[in-house]
Amino acid sequence: MTAQAQPSVPANFDASRAADFESRFVTALNEGAMLQLISLAHRSGLLTQLTDGEPVTSNELAAKAKLDERYVREWLGGATVAALVEHDPQAMTYRLPPEHATLLTDGGEANLAVFSQYLPLMGQVEDDVLECFQHGGGVPYTRYARFHQVMAEDSGQTVLPVLLDAILPLAPELPERLVQGIDVLDLGCGRGLALMKLAKHFPKSRFTGYDLSAEAIGWATEQAARRGLTNLRFEERDLSDFDRSAPAQCYDLVTTFDAIHDQAHPLNLLKGIRRTLREDGVYLAQDIHASSHHHGDRDHPLGTLLYTLSIMHCMSVSLAQGGEGLGTMWGREKAREYFGKASFGGIEVYQLPHDIQNDYWVLRP
Q: Could you tell me which residue ranges the S-adenosylmethionine-dependent methyltransferase Rv2258c-like winged HTH domain spans (predicted)?
C-alpha cells in the first residue's frame, strides 16, 4: 500500500491554539444544538407546559402539550444532556428549573427562547444564500417563512415593554404631544405591534404603517380591525423611492424599528423621512448597536450572531431588490454619515439598559 501524504504543518503552528479552537468548536456544536431544542420547545408549547417547575414524565408532558410522546421523550433526552432540564432517572421524571423558566418563558422579564428561532429560520435559506455567494444577488423577502412572526416576537422583548416609558421620552415633548393628537408614520412596520400599542394608548393621534410585506400588512390590518383601532391604518408599500414619493411635511413623528439597514436604498428612505417631517417633528430610529468597522465589533456581545443574520437575511434582502446591501452591522459611524446626508440637524443616540443589541436615535430637522 502507498502511504498517504501527511498534511504539511506551518513552522509557526501553535498546537495548543488548535486544541483550544477544537474544544471551542465542539462546544459550539452542542450549544447550537441546544438552541434548536429550545426553538422547538418554544414553538411547540413544551416550555410553557414546564413552567410550573413540577416533575413530569414524558407521557404526562406529551398529554399536557398535546404532542406525540415519542418526540417529546427524545426532546427530553436532548434537554437532559444539555442540562436544560433536570432528570430523575429513578422516577423517570423531568423538571425545568425555575432559573431556566424565568429566562425561557413569558414568566420572566424577557423570554430568551424567542431568539433561539433565528438560526433554524435562517438555515432554511442556506442554499439560496450559497447561490448568492457564487453568483451575487440576494434572497427576496418571500423566501423567509415566518420572518415577520419572529421579528414581532423579537420586538416584543426589546421595543414594546419600554415603548411608552423609555423610548418615547427620549424626545421629552413626545408623550404630551401624542396625548393632544399628532400624525405618526412607522416605516418598515412589519406586523405593526408598536403602532397598535401607540394607537390604543393615544386615541387622539393618527397612525400609519408602511411595509413591503403583503403578509405582514394583511396580518396587521386584520388585527387592528379586531382591536377597534380606528385611528390606525396600514399600507403595503415599497420605500425605495421615498425620497421622491414621501408627502412633504405631513408627519409630526416618524419611527423606524430595526428597519433602515435592510432597505434597498436606505439613504433614499432617510431623505424621505426628512422630507415628510414637519419642522417641529421628531424621527425616532431603533437600529443595531455596532461599529462600522470590523475590528470595532470584536468585543460586541452579539457580534457573531448579528453578522450571521446580516449575511442570511438583512444584507441579502436588500441586494435582492438591486439595493445597496448595507447590512445589519452598518454601525454608528455610517449611521451618522447617512443621517447627515439626509439633512437632519439634531442627531442624538442612546442605549437603553435592557437592550445590548440596539441603539436608539433621536433626530430632528
A: 36-105
CA–CA distances in Å: residue 23 to residues 16, 30, 79, 182, 300: 11, 11, 21, 57, 22
CATH of the domain at 212: 3.40.50.150
pTM, full prediction:
0.89
Beta-bridge mates of residue 233: 208
How many domains does the chain fold into?
A: 2
Strands 86-88 and 93-95: antiparallel
pLDDT bucket at 149, cuts 50 / 70 / 90: confident
Q: Do 178 and 58 belong together in one domain?
A: no
Residue 187 β-bridge partners = 210
Closest CA to 205 of 221, 186, 226: 186
> What's the rounded Cα separation, in Å, for the pair 324 and 200?
36
- CB burial of 114-136 (b: ≥16 within 10 Å; e: otherwise) equals bbbbbbbbbeebeebbeebeeee
Identify the residue whose cell numbers are 436588500. Answer: 318
Q: Which residue has the higher pLDDT, 158 or 279?
A: 279
* Same-domain check for residues 80 and 215: no
What is the overall mean pLDDT for the chain?
Answer: 94
DSSP state of 205: S
Are 226 and 356 in the same domain? Answer: yes
